[in-house]
UniProtKB/TrEMBL annotation:
<feature type="domain" description="Acyl-CoA thioester hydrolase/bile acid-CoA amino acid N-acetyltransferase">
    <location>
        <begin position="20"/>
        <end position="151"/>
    </location>
</feature>
<comment type="similarity">
    <text>Belongs to the C/M/P thioester hydrolase family.</text>
</comment>
<dbReference type="GO" id="GO:0006637">
    <property type="term" value="P:acyl-CoA metabolic process"/>
</dbReference>
<dbReference type="GO" id="GO:0047617">
    <property type="term" value="F:fatty acyl-CoA hydrolase activity"/>
</dbReference>
<dbReference type="InterPro" id="IPR014940">
    <property type="entry name" value="BAAT_C"/>
</dbReference>
<dbReference type="InterPro" id="IPR006862">
    <property type="entry name" value="Thio_Ohase/aa_AcTrfase"/>
</dbReference>
<dbReference type="Pfam" id="PF04775">
    <property type="entry name" value="Bile_Hydr_Trans"/>
</dbReference>
<dbReference type="Pfam" id="PF08840">
    <property type="entry name" value="BAAT_C"/>
</dbReference>
<feature type="active site" description="Charge relay system">
    <location>
        <position position="369"/>
    </location>
</feature>
<feature type="domain" description="BAAT/Acyl-CoA thioester hydrolase C-terminal">
    <location>
        <begin position="214"/>
        <end position="424"/>
    </location>
</feature>
<dbReference type="InterPro" id="IPR016662">
    <property type="entry name" value="Acyl-CoA_thioEstase_long-chain"/>
</dbReference>
<protein>
    <recommendedName>
        <fullName>Acyl-CoA thioesterase 19</fullName>
    </recommendedName>
</protein>
<feature type="active site" description="Charge relay system">
    <location>
        <position position="334"/>
    </location>
</feature>
<dbReference type="GO" id="GO:0006631">
    <property type="term" value="P:fatty acid metabolic process"/>
</dbReference>
<dbReference type="InterPro" id="IPR029058">
    <property type="entry name" value="AB_hydrolase_fold"/>
</dbReference>
<dbReference type="InterPro" id="IPR042490">
    <property type="entry name" value="Thio_Ohase/BAAT_N"/>
</dbReference>
<feature type="active site" description="Charge relay system">
    <location>
        <position position="242"/>
    </location>
</feature>
Length: 433
């Protein structure tokens, strides 16, 4: 390809922003009607390389604008302004079972965009691009404070927005993989919420043994968050993902201490609420282990462990007891939890109890279990560490890339809208505590 006199110019705007913000990628000073490949590359915190690419033809002025022009092939097709991010996948030489997660929220996700001559599908690592540009994607704005929490036996990370407050707050509960998962809480804090990313699965006691927490642990965490000097105590929400949904709904329905202003439930169920300790829930799940299925590549499907939806009310959260607004987000191709079936049953229970006016259900076709903040890679399957056995398996999460990515974008915006509606007043200021 013969370059124009000044050579191709690649711009990414903004070059530094939050991960849920859109960017504009544009190439100028190309020859008219030329074929190029736009490539994006991320080196993850886990040491894996993720890539996406699209095939473009420049217009008569030698310009390619991703938000305007169609990708004719690659990891996505059509006019997709954020396709270079949401269609990312591990590079071909990667080990199977990779999952994209941000482990250190105090550093950005660095994306290197590059322009290559022709329509390419491979070999980017060994080619010299015509031009390149880098961008930074943050979960955490620089002025958000990150504080590790170990008070009263609680383990987690607190994120505090800048300013005197008081702010609304979110207790953030992730799922069965356990460990410290901070990136959603960091992003929530970047949007103005004090957020506590609570660890509760896979923790070890002083003897190095797995510690199975009970309701008291979550009640203590909620109380700590509520009483924080930067938090408005009557404006605290709980957000659960996967197994965290069962915990969230159980606490909301039964606890006299956990009284959230609203709750958000992503990819979970109301079946087998936490009544004793986590050990009791694991034991109940183990009773149904014979319902485990595998796909053609021997990837585990766990959704049947909770199916059919129980008729026995003692095996489900009493949804009629819930007195605050609930946002349910479900993927209809969730292969890990029966999220859509559970959402339908919860709606039915609340209609019967007369509190369905509190319920909002977002149900997405073609969407799997791992519904993350937007513009992050869709992962259909990945490695999963079994805590008790200390071994790894490959779990099928489900979903197809395009509808799953659309669902991530829409559900995240509706989550922010839902939290703002119930935790802020119309002027975006917290009402007087």
């Amino acid at each position: 390809m013969a370059n124009t006199e000044s050579g191709p110019l690649l711009s990414v705007h903004p070059s530094s922003c939050l991960v849920d913000e859109k960017i504009e990628v544009e190439v100028k000073h190309l020859p008219a009607d030329s074929k190029i490949t736009l490539h994006a590359l991320i080196h993850s915190d886990d040491g894996d390389d993720w890539e996406a690419f699209g095939h473009y033809n420049s217009d008569s002025s030698g310009t390619v604008k991703v938000s305007r022009d169609k990708s004719l092939g690659g990891t996505f097709e059509g006019v997709e302004d954020m396709g270079l991010l949401w269609s990312m996948r591990p590079v071909p030489e990667s080990k199977p079972g990779r999952r994209f997660r941000k482990n250190n929220v105090q550093t950005p996700v660095k994306v290197v965009f590059s322009v290559h001559e022709g329509h390419l599908d491979k070999g980017f690592k060994h080619r010299t691009p015509l031009t390149s540009a880098a961008a930074e994607r943050w979960y955490l704005t620089p002025d958000v404070q990150r504080v590790e929490v170990t008070e009263r036996g609680i383990k987690g990370t607190l994120f505090i927005p800048p300013g005197s407050g008081p702010f609304p707050a979110v207790l953030d509960l992730w799922g069965g993989q356990g460990g410290s998962v901070e990136y959603r809480s960091a992003l929530l804090a970047s949007h103005g919420y004090v957020s506590l990313a609570l660890e509760y699965i896979g923790m070890l006691n002083a003897a190095g043994q797995l510690q199975h927490v009970d309701n008291t642990y979550f009640e203590t965490a909620f109380t700590l968050l509520k009483k924080h000097p930067k938090v408005c105590p009557d404006k605290v929400a709980v957000m659960g993902m996967s197994f965290g949904v069962s915990v969230t709904l159980g606490l909301t329905a039964y606890s006299e201490i956990v009284e959230p202003k609203c709750v958000v439930c992503v990819s979970g169920s109301h079946i087998m609420p936490l009544k004793g300790s986590l050990a009791d829930v694991y034991a109940a799940l183990q009773e149904n282990v014979d319902k485990t299925r595998y796909d053609e590549k021997m990837r585990i499907i766990w959704r049947d462990l909770l199916l059919p939806i129980p008729v026995d009310p003692s095996k489900k959260v009493k949804m009629g007891e819930i007195k605050c607004p609930v946002l349910l987000i479900a993927g209809e191709d969730d292969q890990n939890w029966p999220a859509s079936e559970s959402a339908a049953d919860m709606k039915k229970m609340m209609e019967k109890a007369g509190n369905s006016h509190l319920l909002t259900v977002l149900s997405y076709p073609g969407t799997g279990h791992l519904i993350e903040p937007p513009y992050t890679p869709h992962v259909r399957f990945s490695d999963f560490k079994l805590l008790e056995a200390k071994t790894k398996v490959v779990v099928l999460w489900g979903g197809e890339t395009v509808p799953h990515s659309r669902a991530q974008e829409e559900s995240w915006q509706k989550t922010l809208d839902f939290l703002e509606e119930h935790l802020y007043d119309n002027s975006r200021e917290v009402t007087r505590c």
